[in-house]
Amino acid sequence: MKLNSILTLALYLLTFTQFQSQVTNEGKPKSWELKNIQKPKPINLPSFDLKLIQNEDQLNDKNTEIPFRFGHKFEVNYSLQNSGVWENLANGDRIWRIRFSSVGAVSMNFILKDFFIPIGAKLFLYNDDGTDLLGAYTFIQNNTSKTLGTWLVKGDDVYIEYFEPASQAGKGSFTIKNITHGYRSGGNLNASSDCNIDVNCSIGNDADPLKNVLKKSIGLVLVDGAAMCSGALINNTANDKKPYFLTANHCYSDPTTWAFRFNWISTNTVCGTTEDSVSNTDYHTISGATLKAKRESTDFCLVEINSEIPENWETVWSGWDRTKDISPWIFGIHHPAGDIMKVSRGGNPTLEGNMWTFNNWEMGSAEAGSSGSPLYNSNGKIIGQLCCGASFCNGTTYQSGYYQYGRLDVSWDGGGTLDAQLKDWLDPINSGVLILDNFPVLNLGNSESTVSNNIRVYPNPSKDIFIIDFDSVKNDLKFELFSSTGSLISKGKFGNKTNKVDLSGKTKGMYLLKLVEGKTAIKTFKLLKQ
């Protein structure tokens, strides 16, 4: 291999390693820096029977079994080769722009196929007056399916702009295959009924500490290019921040086209009134996922988001409970009608076949768009995801409803195969635990483990002996030691303030030490043996 090729490969690997968590909403389009550049003529999308669709929505919106439809999707075929306008810059770089107009659209979004962005190239989307900008999409969004689903751009006159440096000329590719005309607010403010309450509203002193942490798990997901559901990041026993996202099977479409929004939370607190919520500006979007498992009978769908989630998002991976114990009260966090994050609280759930079932929320509501959102028990653990039901509001007052959530304990291993059960993904080290805490372990009020976060493991790496040092003596703390492939090596109890794990005679490499209190796995450490 030539030296310059080696250096290029090394730079690629370094760049990918350093920035693989980078996502959208960074930088500005190159054309915005250029003077006297001509605007491309818009491609006008055809009209459609909006009244017919709205009549369908009036029925569908009362049913949580159907994703919240916000747009009409067109099939198109526009590529870098057959459409758009290229502009060559003096230094050899170039930009490509295409413009779409769809009269009356609240928003527009796109699905791209044959998608490949070389290093240094950038893709942006923005509206005609420049008030809404999405991008840059970069080589970080490249994936094996060569597909990208974008988030929404506000307005009915939208540009796609691709910048390609001279060194990468001709290497980028994508074809615009779908354009969605958003005919009503999806992923926009105040679309849900007035009886819904913002996630920062109080739902009780016992529940507030839980939901104030777990709201950092919740995502609004754009599915099939024209509909929206809810879901949550969910933890696994390796505690490795793998971006597993749990939602409903009835929301399923090709997940490579999905786009996610996290941390979309109102900056004021509207609790079942006609006042409008106000959006924060520090929410985050990310695109693309891969299906791991789904099953119709419990209406669950588990995907893995294709990119790592950046640390500065401060997201939380929700824990879970598969004991099927009846919780005295429950709560849900979700995005009804694709609206900003809301919360609901209820009681008296019952087991009914594959579902958790209950009538009526005591606080808040749920609507189409809430589909797939997690049901939390009184300890703040996911026990299911929203499948079915109907909800009704009378102005600011919750009127009536019934709800069914697919049971996590039934979804666990009832499918029998990797692609139809949760077990293989959420317990990769085969620990067998029934309850798993959220990750990172944050204060969940009264439900928090009695084990302090002040645990030291040293030396790490070590040749043989690892010291596990607690801040006090522990009486009911078990440990399980696994190889990096998930094989159980040993297990036992820690009964002292200072304990030892001896890996003498073991091969070099990584081992996983899991701490279990009662039925709950509370922490996992990676031990590096030299």
Write the layout of secondary structure elements.
Elements lengths: L2 H17 L23 E2 L5 H11 L7 E2 L1 E9 L5 E4 L5 E8 L5 E10 L5 E6 L5 E5 L9 E3 L3 E2 L2 E8 L8 E10 L14 E2 L9 H7 L3 E6 L3 E7 L10 E4 L11 E4 L21 E4 L1 E7 L4 E6 L14 E2 L7 E6 L7 E6 L2 E3 L2 E5 L14 E3 L5 E13 L2 E11 H6 L9 H4 L8 E2 L19 E3 L6 E5 L7 E7 L4 E7 L3 E5 L6 E9 L2 E10 L1
Parallel strand pairs: 1-5, 29-36
Antiparallel strand pairs: 2-15, 3-12, 4-5, 5-11, 6-9, 6-10, 6-12, 7-8, 7-11, 13-23, 14-15, 14-17, 15-16, 16-20, 17-18, 19-20, 21-29, 22-23, 22-26, 24-25, 25-28, 26-27, 27-28, 30-31, 31-34, 32-33, 32-35, 35-36
Largest sheet: 8 strands, antiparallel
Shape category: globular
State Rg.
25 Å
CATH architecture of the largest domain: Beta Barrel
How much strand? 35-45%
Number of helices: 5
Average pLDDT taken over every residue = 88
Contiguous uncertain segments of 5+ residues: 1-24, 445-452
| Highest-level CATH class of the largest domain | Mainly Beta
- Whole-number tally of structural domains: 3
CATH fold title of the largest domain: Thrombin, subunit H
Structural class of the secondary elements? mainly beta
